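Standup notes
- DV: blocked on the single-chain target, sequence here:
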Amino acid sequence: MDAATKKSYENALKQAQAELANHEKRGAALRQTVDALKGLLALGPAEAPAKRRAPVRRRRRKKKATNHPPIPSGLFRGMGPTAAYRKFVARFGADHPVPAIRDALLAGGVRTKSSTSLLTGIHSVRRRDAMKAKAEGAGGESGGE
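- DV (later): unblocked, structure below
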C-alpha cells in the first residue's frame, strides 16, 4: 500500500470513529430525554414501553380442485405457453376458465417462471385471438363480392 492510500484510509477511519462517538452521545442524550419524559408522565424510569404484538401468521389458501380435463403429463413438454394454450384450446375447447387452463398447462409440462406470469400470458393470447377473430369476421363481411 502506498503512502497516499494509507493516509486516505487513516482519514476515513478517523472520520468514522468521530461519527460513531457523536452517534453514541446523541443516543445517551435521547435516553435521558425519554427517562425525563417518563418521569413527567409518572410512568417511572423502570417501566418499559409496551411490547409489540407478535406478527399474525396468515394461513395459506387451500387450492381449489382443478376443473380442467385430465391432462397426460408431458402433453405440452417443450412447448412455449402460447403454443401449449392453442393446442389445449384445439383439443379441449376454449370454454374453460383461464386459471383452469393454466393448471392444465402446468400439469402437461409447460415450463414458466411463475404461475402468475403464465396466467397473464394466457389472458394476453386470448385477447389477441379474440381481436384477430373479430378482425377476420369484419373483413370477411365487407369484401364478400
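- Follow-up: The first helix runs from residue 3 to 40.
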